Amino acid sequence: MNRRRRIYEGKAKILYEGPEPGTLVQHFKDDATAGNGAKHEIIDGKGVLNNRISEFIFDKLNGLNIPTHFMRRLNMREQLIREVEIIPLEVVVRNVAAGSLCKRLGLESGTPLPRSIIEFYYKDDKLNDPLVAEEHITAFGWASPQELDDIMSLAIRVNDFLSGLFMGVGIQLIDFKIECGRLFEGDMMRIVVADEISPDSCRLWDIKTRNKLDKDRFREDMGGLVDAYREVAQRLGILVESENALATGPRLVK
Is the separation of the CB atoms in 122 and 130 below 8 Å? Predict the structure, then answer.
């Protein structure tokens, strides 16, 4: 992809211009970050696993008529996606108390919530992605009231799907983050799910052992990040186990 123009580089991904107008190539890096980049390491194989898991989930969402920017996977690290205008919000859906919610409200980690809660965070690393209310979003024009309704509807539908998907393979979906964007098609515009959905953006706990299978292993210095991501991929049927898996890296199921 070095010959293509780089559009944007974030902490975990790079966007390049796509082969056709209205498309981009999304490249998954091996970088692991926490605290808005305050903690940073390169973990071999992480990008490959996130690319494959995110492809699997987005393909399922598309099949359920939940609109996304995803078109197809190009190779081990890259996807072809539709170019969208990203709405500057992180949309977090919480099913169980964990992370910053526990710190803010004094809840014990692992406490089931009375119902799923949707939170919005303004995307700005310099401000540490502050929690914002719907009034902030509409007042500052980050999204219109109708767009906000569409975003919340998408978030609920994604939560319903992901909860069932992971429950079926013995994993509890604690919470997850999505981003949304405006997809322009001629004179029409619609809100779609963008970015990625992977163990980088979800909290995933083994139902029986409560073992963490997500980026909290990096945040909390637990180790075994790639092994945990590989476990998620194997349970979803994306990867097959092999005797030399740790030496050769993940092998894709064709």
Answer: yes
The hierarchical CATH code for the domain 6-84+225-248 is: 3.30.200.20
Judge whether 6-84+225-248 and 85-206 match in fold: no
Model pTM greater than 0.90?
Answer: yes
CA–CA separation, 75 vs 250, rounded Å? 13
Q: At residue 29, what is the residue type?
A: K
What's the CATH number for 85-206?
Answer: 3.30.470.20
Tokens for 6? 């780089």
For 130-177, give the DSSP string: -EE-HHHHHHTTSS-HHHHHHHHHHHHHHHHHHHHHHHTTTEEEEEEE
- For the chain, give every domain's residue range: 6-84+225-248, 85-206
One pLDDT digit (tens) per residue for the chain, 254 residues: 457 899 999 999 999 999 999 999 999 999 999 877 778 999 999 999 999 999 999 999 999 999 999 999 999 999 999 999 999 999 999 999 999 999 999 999 999 999 999 999 999 999 999 999 999 999 999 999 999 999 999 999 999 999 999 999 999 999 999 999 999 998 999 999 999 999 999 999 999 999 999 999 999 999 999 999 999 999 999 987 553 343 345 455 54
Contact of 13 with 32, CB cutoff 8 Å: no
